[in-house]
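The protein record now logged underneath.
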Amino acid sequence: MPTTTQAAQATTGAAPLAEASGPSRLLSLDVFRGLTVLLMMLVNFAGDWRYYYEPIMHAPWNGCRPSDLVFPGFVFIVGVSLVYALASTRPDPARHKQALGRVARRAAIMLVLGMLIALLPHFYFTSFRIPGVLQRIALVFLACSILFLKTSWRTQFWTLVGLLVGYNVLMQLVPVPDYGPANLDPETNLGAWLDRLLFRPAHLMSDQGGWDAESLLGTLPAIGTGLLGVLAGQWLRRPGVSPTNKVVWLFVAGSFAIVLGLIWNGWFPINKNLWTSSYVLYSGGILTLVLATLYWLCDVQGFRGAWTTFFRIYGVNAFAVYFLSEAVDRVISRLKLHDATGEKVYIRDWLYTHYFVPHFTDLHHASLAWALAYLVLWTLVLAWLYRRQIIIKV
């Protein structure tokens, strides 16, 4: 008879924790991933968006708050992780075709699951959002995997430069058909125009003006964020360099990227929704500093304990908790039940107004309490998976 862990692996694509924690796996990367997921939970699941603390919310348009580091954090980590996953395959071109087949399969699954979230719970195929977070991550993962396997780090660096400069030129110099001069406004920039050309407005995040924060054109600089992770991952794996030198040069590179991003912000503003070139450098620089710090603490100095375990619980099952938490929230936000008066109300609204709002005089506290309660719920689920040594993979 198979064990519970073996059965879960066979039916859900789960893998034993020990198997996914081999000698080449960085503890700091799991901790980094877990920290990013935790921040994502606080950012994405406010009880009431009208009453939430500004530092936890995204910048309205230009600018960068801590919450605006979550999405690039995932993309950056994808870049670092794929280096460790594909490093043994890279020197042998005969194995590239098989490896790229696995990469394409994973990317396709992420694309489908991203659109599945948008379809839940009613499956209205005529009005669901096609672009999305998982969709963008899938495209970045595919592009960066190909570049890592087929090109040198120098080519990857110059590809990064070309993507950032080219995107800047497209967004600020190319006239927008039907609208006139190039601009960076939500509904009239070149990326929004391209999305409306390829998709119906009903398939975009804003079906009124027809624009999407995860625009197809914006995926180009997002690949740049992934390449920053790829370059950082190759530097961490570089033989003959002491851990201290690796950390020092990561700090130098991260600081330089932050400064360059702030300078570029002067004419191409830092903006998450547009994923501007300055945003790539600024956010990527901060993420590089975080990676360097965690690498030094966890993998070099060996500072481990309950705090690393807590973050690792989230880090090893990051994909699972992202997909499931988003799916559950979407379902309870769009399914209705009859309240005591007989009126139909959304399940999420009913839970929030009955079990959270009455206990707080400040609705900002109630909104945060909902997010924290949702975080605790998924912490319990992930702790159970962790204890049973199960990782759900695509």
